[in-house]
Write a structure and sequence with these properties.
By secondary structure, this protein is α+β, with helices and mostly antiparallel strands. Helices cover about 25% and strands about 15% of the residues. The strands form five sheets. It has a six-stranded mixed β-sheet with strand order 1-5-8-4-3-2, with helices on one face. A three-stranded antiparallel β-sheet has the order 9-11-12. It has a two-stranded antiparallel sheet with strand order 6-7.
């Protein structure tokens, strides 16, 4: 059979061969991005679904910093969408009471040691199928090292805070969340462990891993109400002990009021020195709330019966105990603020502006200045996690925590961190530790950094267009260097995705 020569189409002017990447370029570190060798790792501070946090020292300046490691397991999976969202949101927030990203760091795949500290993939959080020599390597955010968090300070029995110090800390925390809300973001994980206190007495809101853009109207005056949610969000957010009642019953179109409930719990904890509502399950959590603030009714918790998707028992007849339980710890002004932030009805709950204008902050003794807060010994939540026994809620966040609570078969144990692979984007279900099955639908919405998008940048381009423009220039604070590193990271990941 005579062979026929294939002729080039006259309509195709430039036929390009398939792109090939030279092996020497596969591990090329992005420009404008520092390497991990620029820092001396000192100790591991904590670990979670996102990866690992280290205390480190910047070699060029000698300053202490915190490195938060985001593990990129597989270039097919892409950079975790929730981690990218967290970094994007933090770059938009420029406020003295919000933790700032000062740099981004890249670590080449397979790098295991730095100044004697093991920084290999943590077996509890890593995907077992991931290679330690992933071509993408790992990325870190660099933030100032903060000496303490409120959880550690309150659990340290040697530390006794004065009333002016408590007022100063609470005022700064409210200023931080007021700013976050004014920039149209929800934090969605307010708790004492995420409120940091530096050596200068400045409070910093941290951990924006569950934060999302808020599509409602921000209550920008003390008397204005939070705008009704314009879209549905994930319901299982916020650590259970700080979770608002509307989240417990299953409301999905929630508002900035969910963060204010968390602030109310933090306020009570500053006086009690322990979490005020330590529920063992969502049902028990709701029950404890009703015992404290009173039984729900149509007047104090409207539409709760209609919105109750989770089977919370609303037919209780508990007498209100808030004043009796905290009357010996708080004065009348403190009780008024406490009650205002713990209203069952999210519409009647204090917004941040109203809380800041409460009489509590203008009566004697007045809040001290941040610089007047005593320098306490370093105290973090992790310092007491083992010594004091189990204290954390059973359900932490999203499908990943559920995966840890399920007795895994060998097949299910293959990868709990990327449990999302076993689920469809349209409909999934998972079982929490209290045995109840939860169903959720739609796109990923802040379940923690384990849920990984296969299209990490096409989705985020649309997401970034919705973000409000920053009130500060990119060079403000640490913005210039961090912005360069962030842009380099995004470009680098995008190129790796195309290889």
């Amino acid at each position: 059979m005579q062979s026929v020569e294939r002729r080039k189409s006259p309509w195709v002017q430039n036929e390009r061969p398939a792109k090939r990447v030279h092996p020497s370029h596969q591990h090329q570190v992005p420009s404008h991005m520092n390497q991990l060798t620029s820092y001396e790792l000192l100790e591991q501070l904590g670990k979670g679904t996102f990866g690992v946090v280290y205390k480190a020292r910047q070699k060029s300046t000698g300053k202490l910093v915190a490195l938060k490691k985001f593990i990129v397991h597989d270039r097919k999976e892409g950079f975790p969408i929730t981690s990218f969202r967290e970094i994007t949101i933090m770059r938009k927030l420029k406020h003295n009471n919000v933790l700032q990203i000062i740099d981004m760091v890249h670590e080449r795949g397979g790098f295991k040691e730095n100044d004697g500290v093991d920084i290999d993939i943590d077996i509890d959080t890593a995907d077992p199928s991931a290679s330690a020599s992933s071509p993408m390597g790992y990325f870190y955010t660099v933030t100032p090292y903060i000496s303490s968090d409120l959880n550690g300070l309150l659990r340290n029995k040697s530390i006794k805070m004065t009333l002016p110090e408590i007022k100063c800390i609470m005022k700064q925390a409210l200023q931080g969340i007021d700013y976050v809300h004014s920039r149209h973001f929800l934090h969605r994980d307010i708790k004492t462990a995420n409120i940091l206190l530096d050596s200068f007495g400045t409070v910093k809101l941290a951990d924006f891993g569950l934060a999302r853009i808020y599509h409602g109207v921000y209550p920008d005056t003390p008397e204005s109400l939070p705008g009704g949610g314009r879209r549905e969000y994930t319901g299982l957010v916020v650590t259970r002990w700080y979770r608002a009642p509307e989240l417990l019953i299953g409301v999905r179109k929630y508002t900035t009021a969910v963060d204010m409930w968390g602030m109310g719990c933090v306020f009570g904890e500053l006086y009690k020195r322990d979490a005020i509502l330590q529920g063992r399950s969502d049902l028990d959590q709701a029950d404890r709330i009703f015992q404290l603030v009173g039984a729900p009714s149509e007047s104090n918790f409207p539409h709760s019966k209609q919105d109750n998707r989770n089977g919370i028992n609303l037919l209780v007849d508990y007498p209100r105990t808030l004043e009796k339980e905290y009357g010996t710890l708080m004065d009348d002004q403190a009780l008024e603020l406490f009650d205002g932030m713990l209203k069952l009805d999210p519409v009647k709950r204090f917004n941040a502006r109203k809380a800041l204008g409460a009489a509590y902050f203008s009566t004697e003794p007045l809040p001290c200045l941040p610089g007047e807060i005593r320098k306490y010994e370093e105290s973090h939540e992790s310092d007491f996690s083992h010594a004091s026994g189990p204290r954390k809620p059973e359900v932490e966040r999203g499908p990943e925590s559920a995966a840890r609570s399920i007795k895994k078969s060998p097949e299910k144990a293959a990868s709990s961190r990327f449990i999302g692979r076993q689920q469809t984007r349209q409909s999934s279900s998972w079982t929490a530790s209290h045995g109840k099955t939860h169903n959720w639908q739609g796109r990923n919405d802040g379940w923690g950094s384990g849920w990984t998008s296969r299209r990490p940048f096409s989705d985020n381009k649309r997401y970034e267009k919705r973000l409000p423009s920053s009130q500060a220039s990119s060079s403000d604070l640490y913005g210039s260097e961090a912005n360069q590193s962030f842009s380099a990271m995004r470009k680098y990941l995008h190129e790796k995705k195309k290889e």
